[in-house]
Amino acid sequence: MHVLPRLAALAATAFSLILPLSGASAQDYPNKSVRVIVPFGAGGPADVYARVLAQHLSDALKQSFVVENRPGAGAITGTDAVAKSAPDGYTLLLMSNTHTTNESLIPVRPYQLMRDFVPVSPINYSDLLMVAHPSTGVKDLKEFIALAKKDPGKLNYASSGPGTPYHMAGELFKAMSGTNIVHVPHKSSGDMRSSVMGGHVHMMFDAITVMRQGVEGGQLIALGTTGKQRSSVMPNVPTVAEAGVPGYEATIWLGVMAPTGTPTPIVDKLNAEIVKIMNRPDVKEAWAKQGAVPMPMTPAEFDKYLRADIAKWAEVVKVSGAKAE
To answer: Please, are residues 92 and 37 in contact by the beta-carbon 8 Å criterion?
Structure first.
């Protein structure tokens, strides 16, 4: 007779204890160093913006946010390490549209993005720049397409691995331009850039934020930018769409996710701080000079965005016949 009331009382006590704990987890977070895993090599956009974000988060939350590069297997190596981490907010993933592409391009993975991670916040997006080595002898995109069609399979393009925005931009370009250009995947974006700038690979797509200097220094030929409109940081370079492939568009975007099970109050706190960083006038100005556009969203909005992007790239993979070499 007295068992049920006692159980009810115990349950009520337990529930009352849980509420303050969940609140405290956000209020006290972080009380130690936070790791930000970047599953890409040093020097690329993901690495660069991860370090900017980490510095601002460290300043705002009074704890160290430490960037750790773990490239390999098309971003799978570092991503899987985060998936297997404790869901306590102390290990975060710096991800990109590589991850949404991999959901269809590499169906056999040790994790599933929307099952094993929760969205925290996007960071920014930027157009890509299509560049060729001067040894190709081309001056613009039309000449490059003509050369590719003259000798199918002779030209090649570099990427930092299967599923990366650079790989998918190349596959989309091939499908829409009717060209046969061989994909040469690399282990990291640094290796990719070295191959093209050294003349070992003919062409690549890369972020304007890191390729602009190579073009201005005369080491590479700019063939086109990949947005709907010309880039504000390279206004003299036509878009790929206006230069010879109507309708072409590809970008690179970055975001933050955490292991599934990370307390919602912590996710919300991180999102709020990241949005504050994106809205800072000095950050907006610095990013604008680099061609990067902030992407403020709530975790729920980012979740919707991710699911739509997964569907988009699944269709591109299907139409282009892209493979994870």
So the answer is: yes
